[in-house]
Amino acid sequence: xxxxxxxxxxxxxxxxxxxxxxxxxxxxxxxxxxxxxxxxxxxxxxxxxxxxxxxxxxxxxxxxxxxxxxxxxxxxxxxxxxxxxxxxxxxxxxxxxxxxxxxxxxxxxxxxxxxxxxxxxxxxxxxxxxxxxxxxxxxxxxxxxxxxxxxxxxxxxxxxxxxxxxxxxxxxxxxxxxxxxxxxxxxxxxxxxxxxxxxx
Length: 200
Ligand SMILES: [Zn+2]
What we know:
The protein is α+β, with helices and mostly antiparallel strands. The protein contains nine helices and six strands, in the order ααααβαβββββαααα.
C-alpha cells in the first residue's frame, strides 16, 4: 500500500512540475539556499503538488524581467581556491554588507550565493539577493539597484571591500568573528583565517 501511495505522489508530482514550470524552476534554483523553498520541495515530494497559496507565495518571489548582469568574480574565486586548498569546505567571505558563499553541491555548484548580512528574511537569516553563475549575477527582485552596484564593486575588488567590512564592523571578513588584536584589525582578517586563506 505504502509503495503504491508513494508512486502515485511521484506521478502527480511529475504532472505538477510540467503544469507549473515557473514555480518548479524557482524551487529547483532555490531549494538549497532558501529554507522556504526547501520546505516546499519536501511538501511537493510528499503530496505530489503544492496548494494554491503555496503557488501564489512562490509567484510573488518570481522575478519578471530582472536581468542578469555581467560580474567579475575572478578575485573571489582565487581566494576561495586558496581556502579550499586549506580544507575550508565551503568558503565564504564578507564584503561590504554582503556575504559571498561558494556553492559546492547541486544545480548551482561552482556558483556563488550572495546575501546581505544587514537585512533579514522572514526566517531571520541574512537576506538572499541572488547568485553568480557563469560570469553573471542573477539578482532577486528584492535586490535593490544600490545593492546590485555594491555587489559588482565588491566582487571586482574584494580586498578593498574586505577592508571596508573590517573597518565598519570590527569583525573578520572571513569568519565574521570579532577582531581583537591590533595586528588583526590592521590586516582586517583574523590570524587563523589569514593563514587558511593564504593572506598572511
Ligand atoms: Zn576569521
